[in-house]
Amino acid sequence: MNLSRQAGWRRTLAVAAAAAVAASAVPDVALAGPATPGRTGNWRDVVVTGVSADAAAHAVTAAGGQVLVSLPVTNGVAARLPGEAELGPQWVVAPQRAAKVAGETAPSATAPTSTIRQTLGLASKGVEGRGVTVAVIDTGVADVPDLAGKIADRVDLTGTGAGDGFGHGTFMAGLIAGSGAASGGAYRGVAPGADIVDVKVADAGGHTDLVTVLRGVQWVSDHSSEVDVVSLSLSSGSPLPYQIDPLNQALRGLWQRGIMVVVPTGNDGPNAGTVSAPGNDPVLLSVGGLDEGGTATHSDDVVGTWSGRGPTWQGVSKPDLVAPGGHVVSLRSPGSVVDKTYPQARVGSDYMRGSGTSMATAITSGIVAAALAENSKLRPDVIKDLFVGTTYAAPGLSRTEGGGSGGLDAATILAKAGRWKSSQASKQNAADAAAVGRDATNWAAFEKAMVDGNPDAAAAQWKKLSKASQDWAARAWASLDPAARAWADADWAARAWAGAGTEWTARAWAARAWAARAWADADWSARAWADVDWAARAWAARAWAARAWADSDWAARAWASDSWNARSWAWLPSS
């Protein structure tokens, strides 16, 4: 094993491990080795965030690095840093990483067809979403009849030109705003009155990465007057806590500017702990996928086995809700990778079937557009409160089954959108969004002190966090779903730091067997997990447990661009 890589991963994972309670980390040592994404010779591609984009650019330049693109929405820049250069503890240095679309399966012709509008309680010929614009950050959108006159704007951040060579973004746009013209209205989107902004961040091979996606989010931020909703059906394997992950931070920035953001939980279910970033963010509206079995009744609805579910490794309960995502029909992008690879998924000449939390995310985004058409004054935190507060229950959609608050109830949402008021929960959600954004730099400095084994410095940094950020701890742990509460009762649980409100310091948990020193000194094999007091017992059943972390070369396979191409976007045949 490359020693510099081992040192880098020890440092990075020590940060991530300590962050499971502190909810903060900063991997400020580069990943090493040519197979690691973001590494080019003696340079490493990173995203640097802190107090502002200008300040981040200055720090990168001072360290001998190159600024690649400014990303004010993250308070940072995409950059290339030399060798093992480190920035100060006030900077979050995130490695470049791949992202993937959260589509799961393309079923066979015999699979039941989703009845989306019927399941959601929408009229067959409605024109929901009129006057609202949804940005689809995806693989591009093809010019097809059902989207004629629907594309309000386009931007290509891949350099490959307009269109959808992969076939995913077109499918999402159809679920949101497709007219159903080619099917006599049978496969109409959930907000056919809405407009689409096509933000293309992946090429015809389905390849994208953190920086390209962030450029897409930045474009939306720069054109915020043109966009009401962002539908981001992407997920990535981030090692960072949501507070300081650049993608999470950027999306929360849109949220604070009044743009509603809908994201998937990912398709790594059915085990607990399988939610991918940015679906792990407690501020954003995170959607899992349900399969309604081809009927419009709710009693037979179940959470898709592929749907990611919480709690997250930081103890956040996800998803917020579930929406139709199994065997749904939407637009085909003729000649695309998905179209040619899975011809059995075609429905007529204009449509195809697919499953996944991508689909659930797009459908939910469309209903957000419909709600905004009913009441344009709704803010993101109120919209989330409305959606979570109006879900329907079903035996197969319980929280323990990964259903979050329940199934998306579009009819009830639209009936109540005009008079829904901010609840205490929605106000708190808005406060959390602001707090974690303002405190990102302090979180980074706090975690750096912990990993360096300096509890006094960590305690001092803790005091610099806002009261809202400190209070997040008790609230987060108090609202966990059952699986989280089960392992929250261990020695390192809320008692250590929430038992006295938020008056704990680094010393309260630094002595725990799993703290920074224990993780930093581990050799990151399966044995290391077993040696840690809570590891094997608490996490053995998690999809990302020992087998995912044990192999020192997992990064190359998990994040390299060839590991999440058409195959791992998982439009695989199913019966």
UniProtKB/TrEMBL annotation:
EC number: 3.4.21.-
Active-site residues, Swiss-Prot/TrEMBL: 138 (charge relay system), 168 (charge relay system), 358 (charge relay system)
Protein name (record): Serine protease AprX
Signal listed as a keyword: yes
Single GO biological process annotation from the record: proteolysis
Gene Ontology MF annotations: serine-type endopeptidase activity
Transmembrane segments: none
Record has rRNA-binding as a keyword: no
